[in-house]
Amino acid sequence: MLDISNLHAAVAGKPILNGVTLHVPAGEVHAIMGPNGSGKSTLAYVLSGRPGYEVTDGSAMFDGQDLIALAPHERAAAGLFLGFQYPVEIPGISYLQFLRESLNSQRRSRDEAELSGAEFIKLAREQAALLGMDAEMLKRPVNVGFSGGEKKRAEMVQMGIMNPKFALLDETDSGLDIDALKAVGAGINRIMRAPDKGVLLITHYQRLLDYVEPDRVHVLRGGRIVRSGGPELALELEREGYAEAAA
To answer: Is the CB of residue 30 less than 8 Å from the CB of residue 211?
Structure first.
């Protein structure tokens, strides 16, 4: 589903990714772990098409398409979803309006019928209830006044509404308490555990992987994957740290 080969990327002329090669088949969850500055977030931003991140070599194919050749909105319409470590606030626009416009924009690009206001409200309420979130919060401006846990729950509601083929989740566990962590983990499993979907989960810690068990774990250091293994690798990293376990 996602095939990355010898991917190199730079930010402001500085090389960050130095030959990442990774294959995530449909139906699997893969975790990327590594120390600060190793290139984890850069990988997510490059794959999602964030401006300022320049691919200098290599390739990334998604569902048979050349991902790098697509504009960011085309990647989203193709089924790619990016979950942010720090979801941004957008004053002046309600979450409901933002989500409805986003969903219908993607549906138009796929020649699908747009959802009416009533259809969308029903969908949003269903997804919010599944995440244990009061749907009234979605009437507020995007993430304005939300706690860290509320922002991540709202992002999972967004993922449920968009129903992507593949999710890039950049440190989704950052800033979450135990209850929010359980809710977010359950949301990832419910929305993305399917034979035709995939997840690349970026995290520093084992704790989210207690709720979202990965099929494979990869260690990213110095802009490249230096080790891969099963779920037990995350436990080894937790015990020994990156310097020892990734040696």
So the answer is: no
Cβ-count burial 19-56 (b if 16+ within 10 Å, e if not):
ebebebeeebbbbbbbbeebbbbbbbbbbbbeeebebe
CATH H superfamily, domain 2-245: P-loop containing nucleotide triphosphate hydrolases (3.40.50.300)
How many CB atoms neighbour CB 190 within 10 A? 15
Predicted TM-score (pTM) of the model is: 0.90
Which residue type occupies 90?
I
Helix, strand or coil for residue 9? strand
Q: What is the pLDDT of residues 131-147, one digit of tens each?
A: 888 888 889 999 998 88
Are 30 and 199 a contacting pair, CB within 8 Å? yes
Instruction: In whole angstroms, give the CA distance from residue 119 to residue 101.
Output: 13
Lookup: tokens for 122: 């029903």
**Domain residue limits, the chain:** 2-245
Distance between CA 238 and CA 136 in Å, rounded?
39
